[in-house]
């Protein structure tokens, strides 16, 4: 099995044309980190319901969690492959806690989260890791990872992201929220609203007597990987970061005709936007890119692509403002450095094309080198893998957390 790290990926890309690389890299190196983070936090506050005091109330285990997909997933061999300690009486020693954290007013302001840890007689503070699920799943789906990490001495935490799990009422809750965000522009269900919750979650975790507030990691798969990326950008209390199949360049994808995979993951909102903007189909097949075209066809193709770009820009700016501009990966991923950052992607992932990460990878490497900790950054693009989490990724994430959180 071939695994490429950041050095080989950059070498692979260096021989290929990459428009405006030097200009963009110079601009990125001049990022005002404090100002960028302040802008993002201000954006989060602009679409919030009135602020409320941080409040935690007990919850109950969810016996029949809601998954917004069919058929309902039952078991993940990939998550079950996570390294774990062999503890004979694991069930008796494993402690489960369910809570609701109030992050703002309203129904979506109640954050359900699950905490698994081993019962301990001493009062020693332990490292904690926040786990974030993928689209249409929920915190209960992550239980195999939580149990594995808990067995190894971590306090393992999982949440339901916005409009998922206990925060959903039916099979289309998340889809409906995305479309509503496009129509009304009053919420940010794609990534940002959950990042607000994760900032509030950090407030709670750092106050727990059993957690070492300097050792809180965060990871997630797909949508959860994006949540981990942006939460770590926004909040430095997440000290070790492992996004799995979640980091991409949104602007790069638009400019390099690699937008289809990501758009397909939330296709309904783009189709709704296309209809609203007078374009009935956001579908690449209406233009056969590689056929010989007449001059008239070439003009039509150009108009078609300009329309697609306009739709993409308007959708992202509506449901997640700045996602394809000032808060895109070339600007926000380097801000995570020099905190330990491991990016795990598939080399063939259509939703997170590895070629779109050349600039942010270079910037993070420089930031870590300048801070005299070059080993704090690594990218693994697993050969032959598309948009899927693999046992190798689970194992690499486990090793990364052990390396930087087990002190």
TrEMBL record:
InterPro entries linked to this entry: AB_hydrolase_fold (IPR029058), Peptidase_S9_cat (IPR001375)
Report domain Peptidase S9 prolyl oligopeptidase catalytic positions.
146-247
Annotated GO MF terms: serine-type peptidase activity
GO BP: proteolysis
Name the record gives this protein = Peptidase S9 prolyl oligopeptidase catalytic domain-containing protein
Which organism is this protein's natural source? Solanum tuberosum
Its organism's taxonomic lineage begins at: Eukaryota, Viridiplantae, Streptophyta, Embryophyta, Tracheophyta
């Amino acid at each position: 099995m071939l695994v490429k790290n950041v050095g080989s990926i950059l070498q692979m890309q260096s021989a290929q044309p990459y428009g405006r690389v030097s200009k963009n890299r110079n601009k990125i190196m001049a990022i005002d980190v404090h100002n960028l983070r302040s802008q993002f936090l201000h954006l989060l506050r602009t679409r919030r319901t009135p602020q409320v005091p941080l409040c935690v109330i007990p919850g109950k285990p969810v016996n029949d969690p809601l998954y917004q997909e069919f058929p309902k997933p039952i078991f993940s061999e990939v998550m079950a492959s996570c390294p774990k300690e062999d503890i004979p009486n694991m069930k008796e020693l494993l402690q489960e806690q369910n809570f609701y954290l109030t992050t703002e007013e309203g129904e979506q302001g109640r954050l359900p989260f699950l905490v698994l840890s081993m019962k301990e007689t001493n009062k020693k503070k332990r490292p904690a890791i926040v786990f974030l699920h993928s689209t249409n799943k929920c915190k209960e789906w992550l239980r195999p990872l939580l149990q594995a990490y808990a067995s190894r001495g971590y306090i393992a935490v999982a949440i339901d992201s916005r409009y998922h799990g206990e925060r959903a009422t039916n099979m289309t809750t998340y889809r409906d929220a995305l479309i509503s965000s496009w129509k009304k522009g009053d919420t940010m269900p794609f990534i940002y609203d959950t990042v607000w919750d994760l900032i509030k979650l950090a407030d709670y975790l750092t106050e727990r007597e059993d957690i070492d507030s300097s050792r809180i990691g965060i990871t997630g798969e797909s949508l959860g990987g994006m949540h981990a990326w942006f939460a770590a950008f926004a909040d430095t209390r997440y000290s070790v970061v492992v996004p799995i199949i979640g980091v991409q360049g949104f602007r790069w994808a638009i400019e390099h005709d690699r937008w289809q995979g990501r758009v397909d993951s939330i296709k309904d909102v783009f189709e709704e936007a296309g209809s609203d903007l007078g374009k009935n189909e956001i579908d690449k097949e209406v233009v056969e890119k590689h056929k010989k075209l007449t001059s008239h066809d070439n003009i039509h193709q150009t108009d078609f692509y300009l329309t697609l770009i306009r739709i993409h820009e308007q959708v992202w700016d509506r449901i997640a403002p700045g996602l394809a501009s000032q808060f895109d990966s070339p600007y926000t991923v380097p801000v995570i450095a020099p905190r330990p950052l491991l990016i795990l992607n598939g080399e063939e992932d259509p939703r997170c094309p590895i070629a779109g990460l050349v600039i942010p990878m270079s910037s993070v490497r420089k930031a870590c080198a300048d801070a005299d900790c070059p080993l704090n950054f690594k990218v693994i693009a697993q050969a032959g893998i598309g948009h899927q989490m693999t046992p190798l990724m689970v194992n690499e994430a486990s090793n990364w957390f052990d390396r930087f959180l087990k002190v």
